[in-house]
Design brief:
Helix content is 52%, strand content 10%. The protein is an alpha+beta fold. The protein folds into 2 domains: 110 residues, no CATH class; 174 residues, MetI-like (MetI-like fold, Orthogonal Bundle). Strands 3-2-6-9 form a 4-stranded antiparallel beta sheet. It has a 4-stranded antiparallel beta sheet with strand order 5-10-7-8, with no helix packed on it. α7 packs antiparallel against α8, α9 packs across α10 and α10 packs antiparallel against α13. The model has no long low-confidence stretch (mean pLDDT 84).
Amino acid sequence: MTETAKALAGAGPGKPVNPEKPVRLGRPVKARMSRDDIIMRGAMLILGLFLLVAIVLPLYFMLSKSFETFTYRFETIEIQVDKGDGAGWGPVLNALTLGTELGVITPERLVTSSGGRFQATEFFPDFSFRAPTLYRMRNVGQGGGGFMLEGGPVYHAEWVEIDSNNFRRVQIRPSESGGIDNYLTYVNTPSLFFSVYNSLFIAITTTVIVITLAFFYAYAITRTCMPFKGFFRVIALIPILAPSLLPAISLVYLFGNQGIFKGLMMGESIYGPIGVIIGSAFWTFPHALMILVTALSISDARLYEAAAALRTSKLRTFFTVTLPGAKYGLISATFVIFTLVITDFGVPKVIGGQFNVLATDIY
């Protein structure tokens, strides 16, 4: 046992040392956080809150809404009619049976939104609010649905008597349920295939055009001796701050139906794939240029010196040195541009016309 251990164990002059007694070292020392640790943890907390508010919560509410289905439950609505001729109340009429016979209820009309309403007068083609006819309605279903009377919902199964003047204001409400019916309906929609095809066509075409133009523009700025390179770089990167709506609106003013240069379209319309591709290209070009300029600027200059020392032609240098050195920048720019275009809503909405894409379908 060392002298330090003896002292910690309570050994002293005239006091025997117990080798079995555990050594007590006092309270454990806690490491204090430095200023850098505090800043790092604070930044991580802020980033986590930002992701929660900007991504997690919107996705949660959007997905929860997508599983809500609203349908009319006409089979739970029953109606009786008293024409005021002294014959009394007629037979009980089921709204679904009555609407199907009249042709006012179709499978497409059964599905609606949360604000959907169905006028009860559609069940009676000869309805007149001045007639002495009386109506009785009730909801025999359980939960949801029902109908609106005088601004309030009616869910119970007791008969409610309504005169003709108030019957014209009666609206049948949809019933809410959960499930994947919205997704099944959308997947089975014939227009889905065209929307997917249009989105991929626009995204791939725009990506090829933008990456090609941006690469040679970046190459001219970084690998040539052209004058005013700083000016051209600033001019090309300024639109990165503009939203996607700006180039689309500009194209409408220039080449739209009342555009200044409409004649240059040679009979074609700017509203459609042509306008979407041009608008998307103008919007995404600065993003690709910024990535490719960075990739070409950090390329290894020693490889160019070695190629010059070996008297390699400029064309071979381009394919053996420049392209391999910028491959990661090209891959990154390709993914960025493709993602921006296929998820963009502004350009297709403003200038797409009847050319549907996935972004506008989701909206």
